[in-house]
Design brief:
Shape: globular
Distance between the termini: 22 Å
Radius of gyration: 15 Å
Strand content: 35-45%
Oligomer: single chain
Number of strands: 11
Number of domains: 1
Strand order of the largest sheet: 1-2-9-6-11-5-4-3
Structural class: mainly beta
Order of helices and strands: EEHEEHEEEEEEE
Largest sheet: 8 strands, antiparallel
Length: 168
């Protein structure tokens, strides 16, 4: 699916990865072997005192940060990456109510990005035009993360897991 709505350009691809490769990613990033870091704010536009938080694990930031970086080497060709900026895994714990986090940009300039959904749940990503992209395991959202977007937690799974990839 490719959409062009009011200048918002994005593409959603379901069942993007070969099943055994995706299962390796899923098993790895939904396991206790990943070192998750607590973040008291969901992004830089986080309202003070709203009690929203998440966990993240940097896989790559200017250089590999985890041994698991090697499992993402196929992305260089699949995503046609020229210059990798960041790979970050996110874990948004489940809550009784779904919360839409404040809109943000990953970098303050246009670039390429992908959100890889690791599990299916009722969480989603909201693009600047209000389009909701649901979290479905092995779904990839390609978009410009230099444009405003929001994340959510989930209510029907233990957590919402995804992987953010940013590149030029």
């Amino acid at each position: 699916m490719v959409k062009l709505i009011e200048g918002v350009d994005y593409e959603v691809k379901d069942n993007y990865f070969e099943p055994s490769y995706f299962l390796d990613i899923q098993r790895t990033f939904m396991s206790p072997k990943i070192p998750w870091s607590f973040e008291a704010e969901t992004n830089n536009n986080h309202p003070v005192g709203d009690n929203e938080f998440y966990f993240h694990s940097l896989v790559y930031m200017a250089e590999p940060c985890l041994m698991e970086y090697e499992m993402f080497l196929p992305l260089w060709n699949l995503f046609q990456i020229r210059s990798l900026m960041r790979i970050k895994a996110n874990c948004y714990p489940s809550k009784e109510n779904r919360v839409v986090h404040s809109p943000h940009v990953d970098q303050d300039f246009s670039h390429k990005g992908a959100i890889i959904s690791i599990n299916s749940c009722d969480g989603y990503t909201i693009l600047e035009d209000g389009t909701k992209i649901e979290s479905v395991a092995n779904r990839v959202l390609f978009f410009d993360p230099g444009r405003s977007h929001s994340s959510t937690n989930c209510t029907n799974a233990k957590a919402r897991f995804n992987i953010n990839v940013n590149w030029l």
